Fold:
Amino acid sequence: MIALMFGPPGSGKGTQASRVAVRLGIPHVAAGDMLRSEVARDTALGREAKPIMDAGGLVPDDLVVRMIESRLDQPDAANGVLLDGFPRTVPQALALDAMLAARNDRVAWVVSLEVPDDELKTRILKRATTEGRSDDTAEGLAQRLIVYRQDTAPVLEHYRGAGTRIAAINGVGDIDAITERIMQALSHDGVAARTA
Ligand code: AMP
Structure:
């Protein structure tokens, strides 16, 4: 089962995706974490990505698509993954759909985390002091929100148009409560949590 965790920067996608992936028993595949690891290892991809990430822009589609495609080829992804931060553009979504169609698969559902802009700003600036991410600055956030509205929000419309199940979840409140909201929405949709 291929699922997507979708939402603006600071919406808690990463936090919720890692929890929901454990509950579903599938790997959490976070494009931003993979790119940060490339940067930390100073690979060719990391060197290309770093200035773009620091400026709040998007790494070119072909690089990210290749990175995700090779991740989906790993044996632990055979039963599906929860994708976080990918696809972030409509061309990435089309590439993902084609990749999955070649395996007789498709995106099964999308969780869309909804958080107002004021709250996003507060969270990102707080994260800047705790996690030290080099793109967590007021300017970085402003740019990432512009990019989100312009390039990423249309991805949700792409999946809505394709008839994919979309769970719109209120992403404000207690972290545990939000995880439960997501799990409840999925169980309504017939997605079973791992019982063990
Ligand atoms: P995130 O950890 O999801 O907030 O991602 C951090 C940064 O990594 C983003 O602001 C982008 O610069 C880059 N990035 C992550 N995922 C993608 C993607 N799917 N396409 C392009 N750039 C990405």
Observations:
- The mean pLDDT is 93.
